[in-house]
Each structure stands twice: as C-alpha cells, then as structure tokens.
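Supplementary Methods. Inverse-folding protocol.

Structures were first reduced to a discrete structure-token string of length 136. This string, shown here, constituted the complete conditioning input.
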C-alpha cells in the first residue's frame, strides 16, 4: 500500500504527514458485543526540501490504532457514524466484517478509506496514545 497524505502535524503545520496500513487484527468470531477490527496505521513525517518531501529525522515514525467495535453505531448502507435513534443501526465492526465478506474488495482501498476517515476525526493528533516505531 502506498503512503497517503494526511493532515499536517498538529503542532507544526510545516511538517507533512503520510500514512499507510501497518497491519489489521480482527476477532470476528467473538460474540457480537466483543467483535472488533484494529487497523494499525504507520504515520511518517516529512519536510519539503526544494519541492520534494524528504523524511524528517527529528520525529520518529508512530503507529496509531484505529479500532472498530460494535459499541460505535453506523448506517448499514453507508458506514457513516449514527446514534442509537437511527433505524437499523449496526455496530461498526459488524459492518466492516460484512462488507469484507460480501465484496471482493481490495484491502488497500478499505484501509485507505479508514485512514482518511480517521484523519478527518483527528485520530492521528494525540501522540500520547501512539507507539513510537524503533527500526533495528
């Protein structure tokens, strides 16, 4: 999966960020209320140098986890977040499990959609919940 552009760093807008899927973990065989899908997202930092994005060595790579579980409700037709008053609302994990099972989709496309939605909701801005990646 290629790196995709996400919003710039929340503390310094000159630092660009790009993300990609680091892994997917799911437990779709659990009881409904315990099902989940974790999308681990690798976030890298870049500075522009003569019009080219180059890795920014002062900030390490981070892994953020986007978790879909059935405590979050979505519209079963679109996957958009809804509240309990929405007719036929379903759990977010169950939604993604059904989408994956019913469609021969490319996992990269689904991962990109989840990363973009996570960025829209600011899920990559709290570095205190992320894990630093150390490369050996």
């Amino acid at each position: 999966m290629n790196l995709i552009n996400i919003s710039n760093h929340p503390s310094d807008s000159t630092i660009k960020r790009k993300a990609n899927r680091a892994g997917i973990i799911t437990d779709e065989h659990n009881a409904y209320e315990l099902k989940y899908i974790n999308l681990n997202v690798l976030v890298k930092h870049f500075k522009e140098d003569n019009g080219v994005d180059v890795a920014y060595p002062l900030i390490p790579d981070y892994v953020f986890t986007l978790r879909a579980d059935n405590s979050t409700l979505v519209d079963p037709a679109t996957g958009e977040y809804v509240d309990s008053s929405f007719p036929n609302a379903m759990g977010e994990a169950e939604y993604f499990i059904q989408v994956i099972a019913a469609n021969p989709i490319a996992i990269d496309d689904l991962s990109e959609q989840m990363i973009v939605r996570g960025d829209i909701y600011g899920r990559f801005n709290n570095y205190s919940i992320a894990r630093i990646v150390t490369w050996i």
